[in-house]
Design a protein that fits this description.
Layout (H helix, E strand, L loop, with lengths): L1 H5 L3 H10 L5 E3 L2 E6 L2 E7 L4 E10 L3 H17 L4 E7 L2 E11 L3 H33 L19
Antiparallel strand pairs: 1-2, 2-3, 3-4, 4-6, 5-6
């Protein structure tokens, strides 16, 4: 009963976002808003599971898709709470950033939203950095080594 009383609903999410000076728009099962020039979307997956995501179109060029996939793996190693993926959506390729959490009340969600937006910002920054490294390495620079150099490794080369 307490969970239903304090639970998360589209109305409560919109109220929280409006209190932060944002203008949410409900579209089906998604709540969208723009903050700092970036469109974010919140999806309520169940009575207590919430996902906040951002998606960007990327070119349908194999090198761009592959580069973003490689960068996404590196980004997720550094930003543990973010999921980064490249996927196809209605014939368009998308780079998607998301984070999920369990929230049982509107109060928790109110604290959760700004933290998630910071996580997404960090993941986007790291993704851009990794894409830049991939492009620079393709321009004749030697690839960056990832991992540890073990004793005797130089002798094996």
């Amino acid at each position: 009963m307490v969970r239903n009383h304090n639970g998360i609903s589209a109305e409560r999410v919109c109220s929280i976002l409006r209190k932060r000076g944002l203008s949410p728009i409900v579209s089906g099962d998604e709540i969208r808003w723009i903050c700092n020039g970036k469109e974010s979307v919140l999806r309520i997956r169940s009575c207590c599971q919430v996902e906040i995501a951002r998606e960007y179109d990327i070119p349908s060029i194999p090198a761009a898709i592959e580069g973003n996939e490689k960068a996404a793996l590196e980004t997720m190693k550094e930003v543990y709470l973010a999921k980064v993926s490249v996927r196809e959506d209605n014939g368009n390729n998308k780079l998607a950033f998301s984070t999920e959490s369990l929230c049982v009340s509107a109060k928790e969600l109110s604290a959760y939203i700004p933290m998630c937006l910071e996580i997404l910002d960090l993941a986007e920054d790291r993704q851009r950095e990794h894409i830049s490294e991939i492009r620079n390495n393709g321009a004749g620079k030697s690839p960056r080594k990832i991992g540890f150099v073990y004793a005797g490794e130089a002798d094996r080369k």
